[in-house]
From TrEMBL:
GO molecular function, a single term: ferrous iron binding
Organism: Pedobacter xixiisoli
Family label: Belongs to the DODA-type extradiol aromatic ring-opening dioxygenase family.
InterPro entries tied to this protein: Extradiol_dOase_DODA (IPR014436), Xdiol_dOase_suB (IPR004183)
Record's keyword annotation contains Zinc: yes
Pfam family, one: LigB
Keywords: Dioxygenase, Metal-binding, Oxidoreductase, Zinc
Protein's name in the database: 4,5-DOPA dioxygenase extradiol
């Protein structure tokens, strides 16, 4: 059965009351893509706890574009968009199929802006380092939606709401970034665990707002204090969170996992929104 027919077959039998959760993954170092550690194990366990998706749509911090694009090729290439890591990381290929028909359908759901069907990108490390632990057989189609760097958090939060119909079709929408992400201030002494006081304080503010569904403060993150500005010197790793929160229904709760600071200035804190908690 081809990818499109698999998608149609699954969605035809998916109960309308049963929708996929949405996730935000703190992806951290590309090395997490090949290491079996507490974070990659957390990703794998999350995949086991939710329904098997028909496809995965990733909003990655590493595809920052002018305008909005979605991958629309049959077989997206594995992109090794980093340097200075062991050859074993560059040797990884994640051969998941794409789904051009789903890409077109997703683009049609978005009416607030035009969406370009892209045939040049692929799966960057914000996508495959996480997904290969969740679905190691690469037997689920994976697409990426880019982040328009000319727009603010409110825009991305609102755009996410236009994707909500995909959840009813069994599509797992996954934001991939890091809430606290300041590479210029990384401490190698704390690389295996630990955070600066300001990073812990910022992350605590984020977590409190998420659990209290105080989305507006998270949208207006620049107003949350100096520790937040240190945590988000540039927004690309934070904005994927807006897609997860924008998809949260009024009666859906949030669950935190992989909640740990590393390297002083990074947090791996991840979020699941959905009615069924693990």
């Amino acid at each position: 059965m081809n990818t499109l027919n698999q998608f149609k077959s699954f969605t035809a039998h998916l109960p309308q009351s049963d929708i996929m959760p949405a996730l935000f993954m703190g992806h951290g170092s590309p090395m997490n893509g090949i290491e079996i550690n507490e974070f990659s194990t957390g990703w794998a366990n999350m995949a086991k706890s939710i329904p098997l998706p028909t496809a995965v749509l990733v909003v990655s911090a590493h595809w920052f574009t002018r305008g909005t694009k979605i991958t629309a090729m049959d077989f997206p290439p594995t992109i090794h968009d980093f340097g200075g890591f062991p050859q074993a990381l560059f040797d990884v290929q994640y051969p998941a199929a794409g789904n051009p028909e789903l890409a077109k359908e997703t683009a049609n759901f978005i009416t607030s802006t035009s969406v370009e069907l892209d045939h040049d990108w692929g799966l960057d490390h914000g996508a495959w380092t996480v997904i290969r632990h969740m679905y190691p057989n690469a037997d689920i189609p994976v697409l990426q939606l880019s982040i328009d760097y000319s727009k603010g958090a409110q825009y991305h939060y609102d755009l996410a709401k236009e994707l909500s119909a995909l959840r009813k079709k069994g599509v797992l929408i996954l934001g991939s970034g890091n809430m606290v992400h300041n590479l210029r201030m990384v401490s190698w002494e704390m690389i295996n665990g630990g955070g600066y006081d300001w990073a812990i304080e910022a992350n605590d503010k984020f977590k409190t707002a998420i659990l209290n569904k105080n989305h507006q403060s998270l949208i207006n993150f620049e107003q949350m204090g100096s520790e937040i500005r240190l945590s988000i010197p540039t927004p690309e790793h934070y904005l994927p969170l807006m897609y997860t929160l924008g998809l949260q229904g009024d009666k859906e709760e949030a669950l935190l996992f992989n909640d740990k600071a590393v390297g002083g200035s990074l947090t791996m804190t991840s979020v699941k929104v959905g009615s069924k908690l693990i």
